[in-house]
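pls design
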């Protein structure tokens, strides 16, 4: 590991949104890039987040079919948050995620 302090990692991570959205000032971009050159952990975080943002922008949000959505929400114990007042699948579905991609 490099000899930089973890506090600089926290500071850098707090600016990632501006950096990845191309809204950071040039001096901040240089600072972030200098930090990433020295810190493999932060470089991995930035690369992973950048890829996630890229994939989301390219493919957008996908929706699950109704039954798969109900099973997923039941498995995560989030049935109160189902859109449109949908009711959950049976309680036994909470122990199984089989068929989520139906």
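designed seq:
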């Amino acid at each position: 590991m490099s000899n930089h302090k973890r506090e600089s990692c926290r500071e850098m991570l707090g600016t990632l949104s501006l950096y990845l959205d191309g809204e950071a000032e040039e001096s901040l971009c240089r600072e972030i890039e200098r930090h990433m050159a020295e810190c493999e952990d932060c470089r991995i975080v930035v690369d992973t987040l950048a890829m996630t943002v890229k994939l989301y922008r390219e493919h957008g949000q996908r929706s699950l079919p109704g039954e798969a959505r109900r099973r997923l929400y039941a498995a995560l114990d989030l049935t109160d948050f189902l859109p449109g007042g949908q009711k959950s699948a049976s309680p036994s579905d909470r122990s199984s995620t089989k068929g989520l991609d139906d």
